Amino acid sequence: MIEVRNLVKEFDGTMVLKNIDATFQKGVVNIIIGKSGSGKTVMLKCLVGLIQPTSGEILYDGRNLTTMRSGEIRRLRRDIGMLFQGAALFDSLTVLENVMFPLDMFSRKNRRERRKRAEFCLERVDMLQAANLLPSEISGGMKKRAAIARAIVLNPRYLFCDEPNSGLDPKTSQVIDELISDITTDFDITTIVVSHDMNSVINIGDNVIFLNEGIKEWEGSKSQVMDADNEKLNDFVFASDLFRKIKVAEEIISEEEKGG
Amino acid sequence: MSIISSLESVGEYALLLKRVLTPPDRFSQFMKEFQKGVYALGVSSIWIVVIISFFIGAVIVLQIALNIDSPMLPSFTVGVVSREIILLEFSSTIMCLILSGKVGSNIASELGSMRITEQIDALEIMGVNSANYLILPKIAAFVVFMPVLVIFSMFTGLFGGYIICMVLGTPSVETYVYGIQAFFNESFVWYSIAKSMLFGFIISSVAAYFGYTASGGALEVGEASTRSVVMNSILILASDLVFTQLAMG
What we know:
The complex is a heterodimer. Chain A is of the alpha/beta class. Chain A has ten helices and ten strands. Helix content of chain A is about 45%, strand content about 25%. In chain A, α3 (about 95-105) packs parallel to α5. By secondary structure, chain B is an all-alpha fold. Chain B has one domain.
């Protein structure tokens, strides 16, 4: 479980995150949504320690990240897996070498065992056939899947995903979403996804947090998102024509049921 | 304002070096990256060192032969002066100025690209000391390989002079060979090697600093690469002055 208490982040006097409180439970997919510039990515970077917050606490199962020394942060990070927006695979390494990299750095297993573990993770994301290809030789969706395999290879306790569906077609996005959801449940880890893709929210968002101009505007589950009475959240959700039509259709069905 | 930002950059560079100069997380991984660095920064630079040294060596001998036209000076002076120029300044300082363009921009653009594509962040998230993992092998590889490049440069520079003597005949090849052996001071070779290793450290670490701290997009990576070459050129010339005064003054 990750808890955020009174998180504030300022850049040159401008408050980007304003007193955020949140709890991210284990074994469920927590999604942070919001418009571009709402502070989602800054919040994610604060959570993993890539950006130092101005004030507030970030507790990883009770351990406060903001007061940790650099050595402690590095040890904590070995429990963290992260899927970056652009996958961030190492250009000079093959897919298999990318997945093996965390094992090469930190595992005491021999090379054969490390390879076996990496192949298992690649198989889990259905990427074993591309093991010997370079990142430049595979598609965006395959890169994301390889990056997920690399993120889970050390059995992390916390998984962070920054815009996992950006630049992907709807079908591939669904595959990535399902993968994230399955991994969260199978390995019982704390997963935090930053996204502005409403399809992801509806598919896998067990716990949804809506950020607006650095403020936590709303929190609930995927089933509550469509019916929320928060105006700013509705503006965000129903900016999509598809979701507007779904909402209208739901209202018509509901009225017909009442009438008939 | 620019003085403050310059001082900030010096401070950032020092803090980066503090992170770089620590024992590697995994020695086997360090050696792997070190070997890649030796090839990418050192071995692949041999051809440019050989070509440039050959022609500059030939031009030095040609210029000296054309300009020393005094009956008071023995003809082997051409060999002696050419040797001293090549050993003391050309093969270390001028060659490093040229290498700061090739190697410096290579390091800065590689690290800059890794920074903007979040590969460095990915290393940090894994708990790897990214500065140590990425930069230390490059610095070590280039500094260790620098003497090889300098020796190649010395030999091919002197060989370029030999060829020009063979073609033009003034001075004769025998006189030139006698000249490059006359009054030879071995310590000049060691001085040149030591100096080039210092320059190797400056080139690789300064370029790494500019690449590692790059932000933005492809344009900023290009700017970081350019700034690293400009800064390296200034630092090489300034430290050449200091090193020469300390070592030979």
